[in-house]
Model the fold of this input.
Amino acid sequence: MNAALRDELKEELRKRGFQDGLVAPNETMTFGGWTFDGDLCDFLDQMVVRREKVSRSVPVVGKEAATQSYGDVLLVIDAIKTVLRRRLGAEVER
Done:
């Protein structure tokens, strides 16, 4: 991921409440030290897999923790989708 794309994604995460160090609003993940190496689509795939794992983790971690983690991962997915739409020039209705 090039620097401009990485900066754009970081800005979208901040708009969604990620704090200094790119800590998620519910503090279930952080991207502060991460360099966002690799492809944006691969990162989206990783977050979708994480979302699915979280949705199955309720019996293990409890409903509250799963809900918080699920909410944070949805914010990341939404930020990625926003960047992709902007970059692709896609007019996608929500």
In short: The mean pLDDT is 90.
